[in-house]
């Protein structure tokens, strides 16, 4: 049974449970036929707001001998991959042996292709993804091999295994093999109990580093903690402005005060 809260101790217990039955793999290792490898856990972290908190998690995983896939938001409202402090954090994650992939805002993707239905236009989607991947590659000097969609629409979920040549975290192979801490809670309830009961051949775990800490803060406290840590880095001293951007980034209601 997993401890309550989003603490690093709870995450360690989840990793212990995973390591007993499955091998942790990078999304870039997805086989060419798009079928996830049996006996595998594809561990992914989406960096929506704070690359420094992602680095902290990457260091914890490295100490355990775990490598994971970290997806960098290329077109988000809080940080830009080219900012020196972001580049430094991401480069350090790469140095620890983790994979860096592309996280792209699905709303911008819908706007680019004209309508939600036009997400079916594979060529347009592939071009859009490759364009953002190229920007990340130029900034980081690192090959991008996987992609996930930020706040995805139904039209971008569980489609082709590869998009623009990149392994797709929302490929159809993961549709029934996926657990996530989106909005600061596990959608499946206790993930250790879920995995113990379902015993999937393979699966993907998505976490968002912003929800995780040593203390295991509640969702509102995790959001409040972003202001002193991230706002100075992006040159914002107005809490109202900062939290409005955070809400735009994550789609979670923001606490009334910092």
Notes on the protein architecture:
The protein has a domain of 162 residues: TIM Barrel (Alpha-Beta Barrel). The protein contains 9 helices and 9 strands. Strands 1, 2, 3, 4, 5, 6, 7, 8 and 9 form a 9-stranded mixed sheet that branches. The two termini are 33 Å apart. The model has no long low-confidence stretch (mean pLDDT 90).
Describe the protein's topology.
Elements: H1 8-19, E1 23-25, E2 40-47, H2 51-64, E3 69-73, H3 84-95, E4 99-105, H4 106-113, H5 122-140, E5 146-150, E6 162-163, E7 166-168, E8 178-180, H6 191-198, E9 202-207, H7 219-224, H8 226-230, H9 239-250
Parallel strand pairs: 1-2, 2-3, 2-9, 3-4, 4-5, 5-7, 8-9
Antiparallel strand pairs: 6-7
Helix pairs in contact: 2-3
How large is the count of helical segments?
A: 9
| CATH class wording of one domain | Alpha Beta
Multimeric status of the protein: single chain
pLDDT < 50 stretches: none
The shape, in one word, is: globular
Describe the biggest sheet?
Answer: 9 strands, mixed
Mean pLDDT: 90
